[in-house]
Amino acid sequence: MQYYIANRYCLLGTSGIDGTDLLPAPTKPAVTNVSAYIAMRDALLSQPKDTAWVVATGTLTNLAILFATFPEVAEHVRGVSIMGGAIGGGFSSVPISQKRGDESRVGNITPWAEFNIYCDPESAESIFSSPVLAPKTTLVTVDLTHQVLATKTVQSRILGVKGEAGEKQDPTVLRQILHALLMFFAGTYDTVFGISAGPPLHDPLAVAILLSNLNDQAKTATNLKEQLIFDDTNGTRYDVSIHTDGLHHCVEGADLQGEIGRTFVKPCPAGAKGVTIPQSVDVDKFWKTIYDCLDRADQWNLERTRTT
């Protein structure tokens, strides 16, 4: 599957992670003796009830099939964190596009839709409309991710530059990979959306939900240096629906596309259950968490090489 947007620029490259040739080769062969859905079910059900989270950072097809085939998994998991969707209309403090004349844009693949939801809107709708899953679901939209930019300062810190004096270490392979990916994204986001300060970070924010105030388990985690803070507007929850009418843009005739894949939200009545959609995050704390993860990964990789 290729990550094309409407004007044919490719945000993440044809592989989805273009920009580096340093990715390591797999050390183990692919698992082929069991269905992925069975494997996901077994892994989640092997955890105590109400503890496991599912983080989805792509199209929701597999997740929807998992929950539809094994509804007991939906009952069993504690939470679902999804990177996807675009709301617009002033939902957050930043526009999706900073190009002149494009400030009212909502989505990143069409003027109305975000890529992950657009690719399979029916699967997304099945999750957001589920009375079991919706109250467990946190949706990280591009309205939030476009607030978290990998600026030049962040890029330097990822390479290992620390402090105002510019204390520098030789970057590990991991840091080189991440920096190269960010540089690729920076070019495409500048070209497509006019975002020149640095590319937004998407998927890690969906993972970061598990380390934040939106996960009660994080409050008691002894190995968490600092809890992340997402603003969910004083506990506001939302009814979420996905527009499923229309044809994808590969079909000739833009008038046939409509608003397919568009995310619509409506605040629930006070105290009612619904989807959590944070509107902002403590950006500085988020990047500190990323730096801490990199430091830990570097240390683990170093210790691993010493024992092999």
Keywords:
three-stranded antiparallel beta sheet, 308 residues, Inosine-uridine Nucleoside N-ribohydrolase, Chain A, 33% helix, three-stranded parallel beta sheet, alpha/beta, 8 strands
CATH architecture: Alpha-Beta Complex
Helix content: 25-40%
- Number of self-contained structural domains: 1
Residue share in β-strands: 5-15%
- Overall radius of gyration: 20 Å
So what's the overall shape? globular
The class by helix and strand makeup works out as alpha/beta
Q: What is the distance, rounded to the nearest whole angstrom, between the alpha carbons of the first and last residues?
A: 37 Å
- The tally of strands reads 8
Question: What is the third-level CATH name, the topology?
Answer: Inosine-uridine Nucleoside N-ribohydrolase, Chain A
Largest sheet: 3 strands, parallel
Which whole number gives the mean pLDDT?
89
Task: Give the class-level CATH name.
Answer: Alpha Beta
